[in-house]
């Protein structure tokens, strides 16, 4: 089926400040991109088993497993990348260690290697993502798109800037070659980093900082996704006590002074918040990136609401 018209990249990296719902957005994007007979891979790299929780599954192994079948025969597969397993796979691929690699794990060498050199860990994780993104079978790409639920905005630049991290570790050899291949993919038109935010000051500031950092690293930034957007409850710019009292009376509800005062204070707080949200929207719009708003899900995330978010993303 190939690329989606509105989302033409092959690798979609999704980041955002913790608590903005980036994992939910990544899952919805993978779901949307799989519609119409496509196959997508949803990857997580932080060991949180967030994909399994979102789809109501048991913890995922280090294997590509189908988690959802979509309309038109499409499917979403999921992969929770384990850095230790990725290192064993890497050692076997380049050094044919096989059983010896497993022995290294028993004595704790694998854990030691990935802990002592976080740059190595990131090369292994991004290397696995690159492999899945570029993998072909019988002359056809295995995945039409790969969606990476990436580390949060505060760490995403370092995570994606693998060549710089690797340069500190090795000067030659397969791991240097692999990191250069990853860097090349991440800086190509095949990749886009989408940043998820809420209309709150800290997430918006982290979004602005992350986009500045990624642009400085020549990593392509895609869309800004405003998650949890709430519709305005009040049409006018201000609400008076007299209006609230009239409204309560017309509805046959008690309109005592305490009730009117409390509702007036709540209405004012809502309007103040809306004013802040509008100023943050303007800041985000000034980035000049495509902006998508997804609604607040008051009942939480389930398969149905994920599907609704997927449809909204695909239409944007």
Automatic annotation (TrEMBL):
It comes from the Bacteria. Gene3D superfamilies: P-loop containing nucleotide triphosphate hydrolases. Transmembrane segments: none annotated. InterPro entries: ArsA/GET3_ATPase-like, ATPase_ArsA/GET3, P-loop_NTPase. Pfam families: ArsA_ATPase (PF02374). GO terms for molecular function: ATP binding; ATP hydrolysis activity. Residues 12-176 form the ArsA/GET3 Anion-transporting ATPase-like domain. This is Anion-transporting ATPase, ArsA/GET3 family.
